[in-house]
Amino acid sequence: MPKGIYDRLQSKSRGQRTAKSRARISAGNKNKPKTTLHRKHMSCARLKKYSPIRLMLNGYAVLRFLNGNVLAHRAAWVYYHGPIPEKHVIHHVNEDKLDNSVENLELMTRNEHTKLHAILFHQQFQYSSTHH
User: Fold this and answer.
1) What is the model's pTM?
2) Average pLDDT for residues 22-31, to the nearest whole number?
3) Which element (helix H / strand E) includes 63?
């Protein structure tokens, strides 16, 4: 047994600690989970930090690669159909931003996409104003 540990065992009875040793122990345990709930929270945070897939606040899934992030629906389109032409976007046919299946993705120009969403918004607005 190293001399330092032996000396500490001999000099203090079990359960007695100095303020210095308490401070050292609490500093060493700063990132260790204290309760089951804390342990779950820390493991979720760790998963979020290192996960290759993230969910953005606007509802889109993002894939993390070494050279940067890519929107999941754009990556799916490139995987199945090849490169996305310039000034084109990928539209979710059923409006579910997390449904990146091949049949739900449609290639459109930005102009077409803007017009489509203007029409959809207008229809939704008319429906909600007539049904209140």
Assistant:
1) 0.56
2) 58
3) strand 61-65
